[in-house]
Amino acid sequence: MNNCINYSLFYFEIKAKREGDNPAYNWITIGLENINKAVINLLPVYGIIENERCEVFKLEDFCWNDEDIFGCGLVYPPTDKSPKKLPYIFFTQNGNQIGKAVLLKDNYDTYEQVIWLRCCSVEANFGNNLETKPFCYDITKHFVIKEFYEDSDVD
Q1: N or C: which end of the chain has fewer CB within 10 A?
Q2: Which InterPro entries does this one have (predicted)?
């Protein structure tokens, strides 16, 4: 992460393949769930990002194509930063960041990856071997995001 000394980045990707003959049944979500079961996720079929309070943020000019690669990243700032910075979650599609980041204000100690799907299959990449299977998104070029969704962005 450029310009991000002492920040921690946790990231994973999925390649989403639609299954079946009726695209109306294809549905997928990718995101992170905290210990309280609150989820922040991307719902490609609707072109939205949803935060842990179920507030919806519409992605402009978004289109989900078969075999797109979606990613989800969680960034923790250094604990000794002053003023205190908060962690955030961001999403990618085919190697590019989409939308703004979601700032985590509460309960950000423990998160797990979540993927829900219907009439789809996924190939997941958790970064276990980046030499043989690199991410589509170049995590080495990730900068600290400064643009976050706000209450005024709720759709």
Answers
A1: C
A2: B30.2/SPRY_sf
